[in-house]
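Quick check before the chapter quiz. The format below is the same one you will see on the exam, so make sure you can read both the input and the output lines.
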Amino acid sequence: RRGLLGFVLLLGIASGQDHSKTGGAGGAGTGEARHGGLTQEERDVKVVRLLLSQARAEKDPGAKDQLYRDALRMDKSNTDANLELGLHLLRQLLRAPRPADDPGSNAALKEGKKRLKKADKALGPGDPKVWQACHQLVNIGHSLEGYDRPLLAKEIYGLSVRLRPDHGNSVGCMYKVREWLCEWENRTAAFEGVMGIVRGQLQRGERTSLQPMTAVSQPVDPETQLALARSWVRAV
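Here is the expected output.
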């Protein structure tokens, strides 16, 4: 298989070491282990990049998981590896059996959250990679809702909101799935939070996070409901 061949080649790059000290320009007195003109650290960086590239192209979920973990074994703080493995683990919730819907006992959910939070901490606020990850989390949540799994969807939306509290789609989806689960605590404050985001979206001419059909069942005035509907029509 292409994945296995690629991994063997990567191992070859990682293991080929020349610890001799070279004389002359570029090596005299440095004491650095070099192979093919690269230091060990430079070769490790190259191998991690190749592992990530292999993981992104891999179709088999198990092999993809392993490639990300191989990259993290070489560089445990690699933000791309942590971010992408976290998203990969959360996508696998769609394959999990129904008993896994208990968030407290779902190992993939726990590790996925941990990986994403670690990447977010390293990247810092405002990094576009985390914002894009929130878009992907919303898509995962939508798919879980489609499979009638609102408890897991709520966990995914909640994670996205914690990563980026101003991510409008995450806030709107979190409000909607809590209604599905009949969680009415702090409902008024949560709705005001959604509408604050929606008003900003309407001013910027963006499609709103609150869907028009959802707004019909909420305390939204007719003029705003019409503006919501128009924003969705424009986005089609």
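If your answer matched, good. The CA atoms of residues 98 and 149 lie 8 Å apart.
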